[in-house]
Give the backbone structure.
Amino acid sequence: MNWLNSLLFTIKEGLKIGSPEWKQSVMASLEIMWKGVLAIFIVIAVVIVVVILLNKIVKFFADKRKQADGEDE
Amino acid sequence: MFDFLFETFEKMNSGSTQWWQYVIMWIIGGVLIFLAIKKDMEPALLLPMGFGAILVNIPGANVLTQGEEVGIIEWLNHYLIGASEALPILLFIGIGAMIDFGPLLSNPKMFILGGAAQFGIFLTILLASVLGFNLSDAASIGIIGAADGPTSIVVAGALGSNYIGAITVVAYSYMALVPIIQPAVIKCITSKKERLIRMEYKPASVGKVTKILFPIVVSLVSGLFAPKSLALVGFLMFGNLLREYGVLENLSQTAQTTLANLITLILGITISFFMQASSFATLETLIIMALGVFAFVFDTVAGVMVAKLMNLFSKKKINPMVGAAGISAFPMSARVIQKMGLKEDPENHLLMHAIGANVSGQIASAIVGGLIIGIVLG
């Protein structure tokens, strides 16, 4: 198991795991993750609501126009 | 003649780059050309990239700046990518003109799958940071998960990543590997019963006015919530508006064909600037290749899992495979899902649902790219 400990130590030292810079980088990545996921779902929710409203509004005016055309006839 | 060869060999060993790194790049260039011609993998891009990779790795060649003589590939990079990432953003006009958002507009909840399938990007950013890449490079590597070449180039360029060449090659190569990566992942995380879920396609009629207003509205919403995404989303939507407006049919066709092909050709050879041996033939490139696979795999996993989650709240079940089509590799991913669906049940046509998810992924990936630029640059 000495070789395994040695390998883990080399990886840890090579990646500077635990160093202040490494911690800062990982924390910044976590921040990107939660902010990004939250933001994308907010944008998508807004777009979905807008698309549904758009469909309804366009359909409303289209039906109104058909009705008016029907009455004219 | 032999003096000239010795001189060339000396040049290959001068500076920080070793002769074997140049040779590796010639081989990589050859492999990209082979994949483009023989395997038909993204030929419009991999062919010029492969050829360019060979050109930029010939020591002393005047495609790169030598003394006061400005090399053409370096010039193209400086003005067409270095300045505002112009080429990939202009390419989005052509891509937008190719997309029909009708299937998405008739079933807006597919947007959720497009968003979900970008989750692999964020996981990859985290993993890249853990592996020691700085934040800009980690974010640029993560965007490979957007499965969108122009978005990858724009983000990596805006963040000043040192690995833009590797990121671009990986992003475009892996897009062509979607038919191999996705089915394997989907089969691991779905049951036969789930893959057999039938989805009926009854398109709600989407009026022309809606299709015209949609690109304008999406640009507004994205611009307000994620201003840094507006270059990508705005140009994508502009291309789509050209298509949907109907009057500018010639312009729409030009955007979809001539413009897109021309830009792709020049983009490929320009990107080869970043494939110089000193920056490409490194251990980090191999790690980026592995992270790219990770990103694609977890995009697929996230899309499928969110589809399963939506089924808990929905009477009309979604075939979870459609979630995987939320990845932005358009239209490849949609075709993969259609093929998988037909294989399980020859009467289960999932294409239109998958296209809805796929095109929403196109929008979502551009928005995520802008979000990442905004968050990293502050």
User: Anything to note?
Assistant: Residues 71-377 of chain B form one domain. Chain B is about 70% helix and 0% strand.
